[in-house]
Amino acid sequence: MESSAPLGLKVDRPPLTFSILFRFFILGLFGLCLFQVLVYIGVSYSSPTLASAIWNLGPGVTFLIALIFRMEKMDIRSSRSVAKLLGTMTAIVGATVFTFYRGPSIFRTIISPNSPKQILLSQPSNWVFGGLIITTGGLFSCIWAVLQTATTIEYPDKQTIVFFYCMFGTLQCIALSPFIEQNRNAWVLRPGIRMIAVVLGGVYSTAFRNSVLTWCLWKKGPIFTAMFSPLSIVIAGIMGVTFLGDSLHLGSVIGAVIIAVGFYMVIWGQTKEKITEVLGDELDVSDQDGSSHQSAPLLSSRIDSNC
């Protein structure tokens, strides 16, 4: 079945079979329900800093899962594969430096003992249990990225994927949440910051973010998308310094530079790989047709002139 798309293009839309709907159900379970629930629970037992540190492993874990599912090829003799591997490892190192190494303060901000941030940092935590839960949630998210990429290749209608994936994930969260939070007063939404957070979470974090992620996974694959995870830590640090009055430390600057270097290496490797694939396709077509390659007419004319 085909349907019209913008600019007169046609997109093949396979029928919504039970297997496709079941895959949407799994995507909602891994990427929306289990990931968000486990991360929120893990942060409540530990801290956002630990969650950021564990999430730095996302590109590496995604790369390994993509290799297992044969969505990425690893050739040690190829500079493109080596660049992607080293870039992923470099980004992980940079994000780890950004999280754990503070160094001397470049900008200092005095925090009041009664400020909400100081109260949050002084709360007790169970880092081991919280870290295990966050790691499990991150693993589900990495698996989701690979499965989502495979789904966009098999079922190219990305709007339908996002719709069913979000719908199934929302229904799963509704069924699971009462067992996690049994206090009825916690479910009452009052006007204020809590209402704004819920609305922004639904519009941006769920609808807009998942639509953009699905499109990026379809265009660039899971490795490219996962590489933005360390960059999010840098962006959060900049926004914290700008809007929340956080202190900027030397370790944050060093980590941000290392992340940028690793990100550039991965982008360079994927760009070279894409160019090689395009040139390879053109050479294959020229070998089959004999006249589709740009150099074929020049070659034939030169032979005629010599004759």
TrEMBL record:
Pfam family, one: EamA
Chief location of this protein within or outside the cell: membrane
Subcellular location: Membrane
Keyword NADP among record annotations: no
Membrane-spanning residues: 20-43, 49-69, 81-101, 127-147, 159-180, 192-212, 224-244, 250-267
Protein family membership: Belongs to the drug/metabolite transporter (DMT) superfamily. Plant drug/metabolite exporter (P-DME) (TC 2.A.7.4) family.
Protein name stated in the entry: WAT1-related protein
